[in-house]
Amino acid sequence: MTDIAELVRRNADFVAGTYLAGPSLTINPTGNMMVIGCVDPRVDPSRVLGVRHGEAAVIRNVGGRITPATLRTMKMLRKVGEANPDGKASGPWNLVILHHTDCGMTDLAPFEDLLAEYFEIPRGELAAKSVSDPYGSVHVDVGIIRQEVRRPDFLVSGLVYDVATGSVEVVIPPTA
Amino acid sequence: MGVVETLTGRNADFAKTQFTEGLRMMPALKTIVIGCVDPRVDPEAVLGAEPGEIATIRNVGGRVTPRTLEEMMMLRKVTQAAGGDLGLGWEVIVLQHTHCGITLLEDQPDLLTPYFETDEQGLAEQAVSDPRAAIAHDVAALRAETRLEGVRVSGLLYDVATGQVETVVAP
User: Fold this and answer.
1) Phi and psi angles of residue B8, each rounded to the nearest 5 degrees, phi first
2) In whole angstroms, what separates CA A171 from the centre of its chain?
3) Which residues in chain B touch residue A54, judged by CB atoms under 8 angstroms apart?
4) Which helix (H) or strand (E) holds B73?
5) CA separation for the pair B111, B108 (Å, rounded)
6) B23 DSSP assignment
7) Distance (Å, rounded) from C-alpha A47 to C-alpha A36?
8) Is the Cα torsion angle B62, B67, B69, B73 positive or negative in sign?
């Protein structure tokens, strides 16, 4: 069982270190980037990609997937960004989709009702979501973003993290 | 250098010097944190979590929406597939923060009502402009969830002006 007090104590270390030593931050990511990654405890996007404090907005859901709910979330975040012009970094916006090997989503393959609800599609179309293959699923999700967002200043990329080696592979390089 | 080149370069350092072998899909602390997308409030960073210790959902506001509960059910199935169960012995921590961007959406019910899957009247209960009330609401929603029986739930508030976390609802 976790001792919440222990995590709160570790927060004091964070305040004394990263927080006070770091730059003052706004709601806008200093690196002009958003990462979409998985809930998995082995694949903290900040740690495995070396994202610094304040550099990236991070969505984490089951599988790091682009679902209709993820798209609604992105729309909300865009509104928040528009309401906060201060501290916005220059240059293109970068969306990084980070999937990984040995994802728990694979264990959900038999639960078609859960997956169909998650992706908001009929059960018969689940095969197209490639839930058991991260190299396939980053293609699927980058493809959805390219259909939804067509702007020259919006770059999307697809990465796969290997939980056995700690290495990330760029499956789809950043493209507008 | 592009963002992805920068990140893959940092990952190469991570893989070489910081990667921990043998971590498991099940969080070592049997803890799931629900936190916000905000770049200032990385749950692992602000709570000092080590690799593999906690599973983390990050959505707008760190809120418990019907979608969040749906994800919890998916995580429960994954836990069961690993031979355990998301129940007694597990912790869920709701981590919200001050100056959250969701407050800027208060006048956009067209975005918020589908997010919470509610109507305009129901939005008031979600307390989007008051993190303490929102935490209390979301902890109560998790505690009322019969499919998560036995899970201990707590609520923390992170202050972006000080870096400090405050326990708003104790486990």
Assistant:
1) -70, -30
2) 15
3) 39-40
4) helix B66-81
5) 6
6) -
7) 14
8) negative
| Tens-digit pLDDT profile for residues B110-151 | 999 999 999 989 999 999 999 999 999 999 999 999 999 999
Contact A98, A37 (CB under 8 A): yes
With beta carbons less than 8 A apart as the criterion, state whether A96 and A34 touch.
Answer: yes
The arrangement of strands across the sheet holding A154-161 comes to A168-175, A154-161, A93-100, A33-38, A56-61, B54-59, B31-36, B91-97, B152-158, B165-169
Phi, psi angles (nearest 5°) of residue B100: -80, 140
Tell me the shortest Cα–Cα distance from B169 to chain A, in angstroms.
11
Cβ separation A11–B46 shorter than 8 A: yes
Neighbours of A16 (CB within 10 A): 11
Looking at beta carbons, which residues of chain B come within 8 Å of A107? 77-78, 81-82
Neighboring chain B residues of A29 at a CB cutoff of 8 Å: 39
One pLDDT digit (tens) per residue for chain A, 176 residues = 567 889 999 999 999 999 988 888 989 999 999 999 999 999 999 999 999 999 999 999 999 999 999 999 999 999 998 888 777 778 899 999 999 999 999 999 999 999 999 999 999 999 999 999 999 999 999 999 999 998 889 999 999 999 999 999 999 999 88
Spatial distance between the Cα atoms of B93 and A44, rounded to a whole number of angstroms: 17
What is the pLDDT at residue A2? 60
Q: Kindly report the number of other CB atoms within 10 A of residue A6's CB atom.
A: 12
